[in-house]
Amino acid sequence: MIAIAAHRARRADVTLFRNHWPPMTPSAAADALSPTGSSTEAVPAVSVRQLTKVYGGKGGPKPALNAVNLDIPRGMIFGLLGPNGAGKSTLINILAGMVIKTAGSATIWGHDIDRRPRQAAAAIGIVPQELNLDAFFTPREMLNVQAGMYGVPPRERRTDELLETVGLTDKADAYSRTLSGGMRRRLMIAKAMVHSPPILVLDEPTAGVDVELRQHLWEHVRVLNRRGTTVLLTTHYLEEAQELCDAIAIINHGNVIACDSTVALLRRLDRKDLTITLTRNLDALPEALAAFEVEQPSPRRLVFTYRPSQTRVRDILTAVRGCGLDIGDLTTHEADLEDLFLELTSADDGRTEAADAAEAAGSAVDAGDAG
Description:
This protein is of the alpha/beta class. It folds into two domains: 2-262, P-loop containing nucleotide triphosphate hydrolases (Rossmann fold, 3-Layer(aba) Sandwich), CATH 3.40.50; 270-334, Alpha-L RNA-binding motif (Alpha-Beta Plaits), CATH 3.30.70.1560. The chain has twelve helices and 14 strands. The chain has helices spanning 2-20, 26-32, 88-95, 117-122, 139-149, 159-165, 181-192, 211-226, 238-244, 262-267, 313-322, 337-370; strands at residues 46-55, 62-72, 77-81, 103-108, 111-112, 124-127, 199-203, 230-234, 247-252, 255-261, 272-278, 293-298, 301-306, 327-334. The strands form three sheets. Strands 6-7-8-3-9-10 form a six-stranded mixed beta sheet, sandwiched between helices. Strand 4 (103-108) and strand 5 (111-112) form a beta hairpin. Residues 1-30 and 354-371 have low confidence and may be disordered.
């Protein structure tokens, strides 16, 4: 009886949805995939200009996005990174139509979210962090219902194709409550793709997922990207962002503080560590090594930090051997995305705190003058 009641409730929900937002005609749906403008390649998948969002509340206005400008090129896996509360979810929710912006503009596949909201919505699929699946629906039923909500005619639905893409063909007719966590994540991706959007947004898709399932999820995402889908990814796992993303934007306190290709961002740090293991104990650092930035964490280990643009490894090794030291082993460590992320956000936090302090001091002076 519970299952029957759930099915009836879902049918009522679908009816209300379609009455509120009637399905698009085939010509309108095709129009949603054809961005305005003459040059298709020149139109970014997502473009925001001066995008601003300020939340109200008892404590006064709270800015979440501060005049953000950002372009996401087509065909990329694009990472949007930032600390908690940086503004990532607000930006995604504005694109999804769940949050109303305060100012600025946003276009999805060439469609302005204000002037052409239906076409913009049809061009994007959102995979939220939360698992919002109906326990009494099978994956096949769920995808068909979702496609119906987007007005996809039965003959044009790609239910079986999507189930195969995310590896759920053998679970197509099993209740979703019986699926594992990884399977549910993949089903969420399939739900977001029922209307064939050219853009897929993944909001923390691997949160709470073990390493093996995470690898499976990313393989499915790569398949979708190779087939032409632009992917916008938010994640706190910086190593997977470094591995997957073609380009990355870092947002902090509502501002984009960095945006470039992943390779170019990593090149910014210009820092490496060289660890040398000696064949015998060293009581003190020789004076000849004082010209380098070097630490001695143990009697037989030396750690050199250097800039590849200014110092060659050969120069360090020559100096070590010149001190009469025998090298038993050596390893190098390159700066990664986590190092860059911490460096940029820490510097931005410092600037923000200084600006807040200056503003508070200015307010105090103004109050004193008024008194």
